[in-house]
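anyone seen this seq b4? input:
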Amino acid sequence: MLGRRALPRFNNALKTLSRNASSSTTPAVKSAEASVKKVAEAGPVTLQQAPNYPTTWSTNQAPRPGPGSGPRFEQTAMEFQPAPLSAMELIAKEPIRLVQGRKAVCDGGVSSSSFSLRVPMSLSMDRNWLGIEPAC
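predicted toks r here
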């Protein structure tokens, strides 16, 4: 029973020692110092929050992580990751249309397909508020 546990661990330890002893002729301290200098020179990588909106739109929103910002994004090619457009910017471009008196309509936008997930909405403008309806 002891042999089943001890022998594989002992073999792994020997393999690690032999790899470390034979793989490098230069001291490891110099390579570690060089990598720290490279990271310090490069600085943190920041990405644009959305292709049509450069910054975060909320004070508590985390910025978009850059490549190498953590173990999750260590080997991620960020140019192949989805970069959705900012809904705030798209809504700001779509005007609210006044229809009759104090009612406004957002038609949900024009879709190229026959099936659209955006539902037409009618907004009541009883208050003195003319802005952008976030659900529109």
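The chain has a mean pLDDT of 64. The beta strands are 97-98, 103-106, 121-124. kinda curious what u guys think
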